């Protein structure tokens, strides 16, 4: 082990993890959200200046910043299969075998949950981005790419949705997918 990384460093890291699907996870939620936004947005080609977490209790959105001089709200949400995650954390490792329909439905459910103007604090926001992060074992880059072909999601307030997977060593970064949106009203 190099001098740069010592066992003491692990003592700082381990208490902040949950024991499964930990690539994006950090117990201090504002730190996790801001770190995810700072990592994912550039990979999606979205440059946000002055990215900052909002104070606890003053969200949603989780973060704010500026996009081309305009205020931007950023919400971060984890995409997980809760039942299998809880089982794994309890010591009974499981993996959910995602199918296209389950993934599309889970994404739309999270978009719908976050696409509620009446819950947003702060603003006004000219751009409102939802970042979905996941470290689901069965959601590899190629499979997600295939599942997302032809999928279009609905949102009224949210202007952009980005799905980010955990680190993929074959491309030396996290795969990121910008998801197409349309208004449920058809406009």
Word description of this protein:
Helices cover 28% and strands 21% of the residues. With 187 residues, the protein is α/β, with parallel strands linked by helices. The protein has one domain (21-182). The radius of gyration is 17 Å and the shape is globular. It starts with 6 loop residues before the first helix and ends in a 5-residue tail after the last strand. The mean pLDDT is 84.
In short:
This protein is an alpha/beta fold and 187 residues long. The chain has helices spanning 7-13, 29-43, 82-89, 100-114, 141-148, and strands at residues 49-53, 63-67, 70-78, 127-133, 153-154, 160-164, 176-179, 181-182. The chain contains five helices and eight strands; from the N terminus they run H-H-E-E-E-H-H-E-H-E-E-E-E.
Number of separate domains: 1
Oligomer: single chain
- Major beta sheet, specifics? 6 strands, mixed
- Using the CA coordinates, give the radius of gyration: 17 Å
Task: Give the N-to-C terminal Cα separation.
Answer: 57 Å
What tags apply to this protein structure?
six-stranded mixed beta sheet; about 190 residues; two-stranded parallel ribbon; about 20% strand; alpha/beta; about 30% helix; 8 strands; single chain; 5 helices
């Amino acid at each position: 082990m190099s001098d740069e990384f010592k066992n003491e460093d692990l003592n700082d890291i381990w208490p902040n993890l949950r024991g499964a699907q930990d690539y994006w996870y950090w117990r201090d939620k504002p730190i996790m959200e801001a770190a995810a936004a700072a990592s994912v947005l550039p990979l999606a080609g979205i440059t946000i200046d002055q990215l900052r977490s909002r104070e606890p209790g003053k969200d949603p959105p989780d973060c704010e910043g500026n996009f081309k001089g305009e205020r931007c709200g950023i919400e971060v949400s984890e995409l997980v299969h809760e039942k299998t995650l809880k089982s794994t954390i309890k010591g009974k490792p499981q993996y959910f075998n995602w199918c296209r329909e389950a993934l599309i439905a889970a994404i739309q459910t999270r978009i719908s949950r976050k696409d509620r103007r009446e819950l947003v604090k702060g603003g006004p926001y000219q751009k409102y981005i939802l970042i979905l992060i996941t470290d689901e074992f069965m959601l590899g880059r190629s499979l997600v790419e295939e599942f997302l072909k032809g999928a279009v999601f609905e949102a009224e307030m949210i202007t952009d949705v980005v799905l980010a997977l955990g680190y993929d060593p074959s491309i030396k970064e996290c795969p990121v997918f910008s998801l197409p949106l349309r208004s449920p009203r058809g406009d």
